[in-house]
Amino acid sequence: HQQVDVPVALAALNAMPVTSPAASGAAAAMVAGAWAPQFPVQLMAKDLRYALQAAGGGLPITEAVLARFHAACEAGLGDEHVVALHKLCR
């Protein structure tokens, strides 16, 4: 199991033209350890469930992401900001 240097990885992602301002802000919050629930894990899981229902299934990447969000909720991270998912990788 190899560890990722989070600040280096996020700096690389932020340098990409496809990185949104929301993603950059979330990255900064993750590095700073700011977990204030601006958009809690449990609400993101709800939205992902709605997306899967609307699509009628067949979205394997969305299903995999939702599984991670469910794992985060089960780990007690449901009320934290979505960037708290990285805590599952420690």
Summing up helix and strand content along with how strands pair, one would put the structural category as mainly alpha
State the order of secondary-structure elements, H for helix, E for strand. HHHH
The average pLDDT value, as a whole number, equals: 87
Distance between the termini: 10 Å
Number of helices: 4
Q: What does this protein structure show overall?
A:
There is one protein chain. By secondary structure, the protein is mostly helical. Helix content is about 55%, strand content about 0%. The chain has four helices and no strands. The chain is globular, with a radius of gyration of 14 Å. The protein starts with 5 loop residues before the first helix and ends in a 16-residue tail after the last helix.
Give a short overview.
Helix content is 57%, strand content 0%. By secondary structure, it is mainly α.
SSE blueprint:
Layout: H1 6-14, H2 21-32, H3 41-55, H4 60-74
For this entry, give a set of tags.
90 residues, single chain, mainly alpha
